[in-house]
What we know:
Elements: H1 3-6, E1 32-35, H2 39-48, E2 54-57, H3 68-76, H4 82-85, E3 96-98, H5 134-138, H6 148-162, E4 165-166, E5 182-183, H7 189-201, E6 206-207, H8 242-250, E7 254-256, E8 261-266, E9 272-278, E10 284-288, E11 291-294, H9 297-307, E12 332-333, E13 335-339, E14 354-356, E15 370-374, H10 382-387, H11 393-403, E16 407-414, E17 423-431, E18 437-442, H12 447-467, E19 470-475, E20 513-515, H13 530-550
Parallel strand pairs: 1-2, 1-11, 2-7, 3-18, 4-5, 11-20
Antiparallel strand pairs: 6-14, 8-9, 9-10, 12-16, 13-16, 13-19, 14-15, 15-16, 17-18
Helix pairs in contact: 2-8, 2-13, 6-13, 7-12
Cofactor: FAD
Pfam families: GMC_oxred_C (PF05199), GMC_oxred_N (PF00732)
InterPro entries: 4Fe4S_Fe-S-bd, FAD/NAD-bd_sf, GMC_OxRdtase_N, GMC_OxRtase_C, P2Ox-like
Amino acid sequence: MSGAESVGDGRSDAGDGGADDVDRTPVSDADVCVVGAGPAGALVADRLAGDREVVVLDAGPRFDPADRLARQERAIRPFYGRPDVWGVGGERDAHENAGDRFYPLNHARVKGVGGSTLHWQGMVMRLHEDDFNSGSVRGVGPDWPIEYGDLRPYYAEAERELGVAGASDNPYAPPREEPHPMPAFEPSYSDSLFAEACEELGIDMHSVPNARNSEPYDDRSACVGYGTCQPVCPSGAKYDATVHVERAEERGATVIDRAPVRRLEHDGDDRVTAAVYATPDGEEHRQEADAFVVACGGVETPRLLLMSASDRYPDGLANRSGHVGEFFMDHLFAGAGGTLDEPTRQNHVGFYTSACDQFYDEADESQAPFKLEFFNYAGPSPVEMALSGDDWGDPLLERLRDGYGDHVAMGGLVEQAPDADSRVTLADDQTDGHGDPVPRIEWTVGDRALDTIERANEIQVGILEELGADVEWVAGPDATGPAYHHMGTTRMSDDPDRGVVDADCRTHDLTNCWIASSSVFPTSGAMNPTLTIAALALRVGDDVAGWLGDGS
């Protein structure tokens, strides 16, 4: 049996059937119930565990770290799609699409302890100062009810908690208070090729902060360059949320896997009283607690609130504003690539080491903020080429030599403006294995983002042509897709009529319920969201602790 076969067929570890001997009964006298064991939920649980009784409920399984090498093998075999690596799909993960664009939801998520960080790329940038004041400065979307300065100390703490390698060589980055915990990764060989072209064009390159170890950190080894960061890091050098899940458990927290929460119950005083969850043996349980933190991401969080409709909240829990599920945002991809007449040494690492934020703060009503990325993984890897062919020996070697090593490419992320018609609702006639309606995604992208993709493409193609590359593809407005960053569906606002949570991420309607997720983002910016998610989660942990302490 091969390693790829040893972890099943892509569905057996999804946690949809079969019983085991794990105790999944509710925890008595819980102070805090956290729904979701991804990065936000894990950080909140670790923050609150110790002096308080904390229980974490997650819909997916707890994956065995010993299977990661097998998952890596599965990831590079052409027979398997990306969702297969972490057992995503089937009735449990069903969803519907509607609206202008198809949204490939299951390509983007992992249901299980660790969440999306089990397969993320690991890029961790801070939002820019103007991202928090987009309405005032750029004329697009609302301002956040908090400013960069409010998150600045939490950003620094999040970088320490995750373990971020970075440098202070980006003149366009927001101000910071201390160096990154680890030095940045060295620029790649292809970065040096790009650097010459960018210098000719007056375009600045700088390092990229990564949530992976450039040196041993937090009892984890330095990155060893497997190159399969997406969808699996077999060495553990890249951060994932199991780090804080395990730390929370060591401090007394209880983590219950394969326990999808079907609804939240509340009393007449607008307090959540219990999370009702299912278990693989077919039982249903009620987890009571004093405080609840919903940390299910930008799709499952609004779905849970909408499924928790009651007589008091007929349109969904915490939804008196009517905005739960609305303003679904993602970052749009812009890219271009081709080949050079010389080696470019691609696929040695599975992440990028240089970027350009030079054009980010030019954003206004007509142009969205965007950043540029210089890829280290353009074109196929030799392993992928070998596994996808039917030749052997010298013909195989000749094909690999002809087809590998001369590719070069750039990417970029573009902000999507918030739009109430871009939203997550409940499907009318499709349910999951528990009979609950699946999420229905209506993804709408406006002209501002599409026009900005064209602007990013112009710069990318200009750099590639200056480099001397034969440009073979461009991912422009007609070929763009999501970066799989779900944001905006329970937006933050000081005004209860304009948002779902307040500046502390506590729901306006419920006194003991917080949301820790990118779903609270009023606008998305164009920076990868996980560091901001982590900073907000740490802030939520402090607010919950203060609320529990004074008995509000």
